[in-house]
Design goal:
The chain is 43% helix and 15% strand. It is α/β, with parallel strands linked by helices and 401 residues long. It has two domains: 2-205 and 377-394, Glycogen Phosphorylase B (Rossmann fold, 3-Layer(aba) Sandwich); 221-375, Glycogen Phosphorylase B (Rossmann fold). It has a seven-stranded parallel sheet with strand order 3-2-1-4-5-6-7, sandwiched between helices. Helix 12 (324-327) links the parallel strand 12 (320-322) and strand 13 (339-340). The longest helix is centred in the middle third of the chain and has 21 residues, at 231-251.
């Protein structure tokens, strides 16, 4: 089968929320099919390296130059915009014109669209089976941001929520399958799109890692990971630094904190200028940080989306303390695979309790690692992917173009 995969940016290296999922989807598809990849260039990306690595999986790789930088969601112009942020950045009418003849010629047996950013190109393939991977209910996610943020940012986020949700609902009518990374995201989207019976769930697989039995850092070390320009991570990092970690230090003065992720704000960098806190922005440091840390934390308040950082830590055998919002939608069991606590004081107390009990750290770390390898394995996801591809290609969809 010939498949065209469209995604906003090159899915390599598979290290962040924008690249891990499409990379593994392409890898799964390439096991049985010829996959052509089309994407836009990424900021700060080694494009040559990405193209060479992706050619090992894809029949053809086309990376389209893009000069439009990402817009900050709190820019006042976004309050009155007609289209969502991703649409304005990635839609190119000339690309749509290039794709339309390909769609008319029915060159592909299936076209795969990764995220709502690629939804405008659905119209180029009216007769070709399509899968739209929304990953998460993005419009509802922005609404949750608006409920947390202060004015005027809350007004910007609410406007983006309305625009994006309208785009997602409209796009969902044009694909044979609409895919989400967690069942709770699919359920939320079904509530706003109740007549759509083509909504499915496909997990994002996690890379297997060596068990994290040491060597631990000399002092008890707590690890927080996640790119800070993603609102849920930035909000959680501030909550950790301003509220939870001071409580941990008051209970256990020797504990250290490491934060790892791209694009920290100046305010966040200032909060990290303490001897007991380390901030790193180099993704290559993550494997060593996962090995040395005693405990990972995820004090998120945003429920929408899937916290891949938790899955990554658990796959390394690292015990995790997280909030209920952070683990919503994850196929893990609280109390056995990880510790779940949303109250800041009790969150800090649970973290200290584990740090003072090495045997319990190992017990939860091992249980969590087994849960991730059982529920998020590459082979189980690849099998499900193949089922969905065959279903989409067998179904004729009557939609109003």
């Amino acid at each position: 089968m010939r498949i065209l995969y469209l995604t906003p940016r090159p899915p390599f290296p598979p290290e962040g929320r924008e690249t891990v999922r499409p990379y593994h989807q392409i890898r799964s598809l390439a096991l049985r099919h010829d996959v052509d990849l089309m994407c836009f260039s990424g900021i700060g990306l080694d494009e040559w390296e990405a193209r060479e690595q992706l050619r090992n999986l894809c029949h053809r790789v086309q990376i389209i130059p893009i000069e439009t930088p990402p817009q900050h969601p709190e820019n006042m112009r976004n309050l009155f915009a007609r289209r969502p942020l991703a649409y304005r950045r990635y839609f190119r009418r000339e690309l749509l014109r290039r794709l339309e003849p390909i769609g008319e010629a029915k060159r592909y047996d299936l076209v795969f669209f990764h995220t709502a950013a690629m939804a405008p190109y659905l119209d180029a393939f009216p007769e070709t089976p399509k899968i739209l991977d929304l990953v998460e209910a993005g419009g509802l996610r922005w609404a949750e941001y608006a409920n947390i943020a202060k004015f005027p940012a809350s007004a910007m986020y609410r406007a983006e929520s309305t625009r994006l949700l309208q785009t997602e609902v409209k796009a969902a009518r044009k694909a044979q399958r609409i895919m989400f990374a967690a069942e709770k995201e699919a359920i939320a989207f079904r509530a706003v799109c109740p007549d759509n019976e083509r909504i499915i769930t496909l997990k994002t697989p996690v890379n297997p890692r060596t068990p994290n039995h040491g060597p631990w850092a000399a002092e008890p070390t707590v690890l927080f990971t996640g790119h800070f320009d993603h609102f849920p991570n930035g909000d959680a990092a501030h909550r950790l630094l301003n509220d939870i970690f001071p409580r941990i230090r008051s209970l256990s003065p020797n504990v250290r904190l490491t934060l790892a992720g791209r694009n920290p704000t100046p305010e966040l960098q200032l909060l990290c200028e303490r001897p007991e806190i380390t901030l790193t922005t180099h993704p290559a440091d993550l494997p060593l940080l996962l090995k040395e840390a005693w405990l990972a934390v995820a004090p998120h308040r945003v429920e929408r989306g899937v916290r891949n950082e938790i899955l990554e830590a658990m796959s390394a055998g690292l015990p995790v303390v997280a909030t209920e919002a952070a683990v919503a939608g994850l196929d893990v069991l609280a109390g056995r695979d990880l510790t779940v606590e949303s109250n800041p004081a009790r969150f800090a107390a649970e973290a200290v309790r584990l740090l003072e009990d090495p045997r319990k750290l190992d017990e939860i770390g091992d249980a969590g690692r087994k849960a991730i390898h059982n529920n998020y394995s590459h082979w189980s996801v690849a099998i499900r992917m193949e089922e969905f591809v065959n279903q989409a290609c067998a179904e004729r969809l009557e939609v109003a173009q």
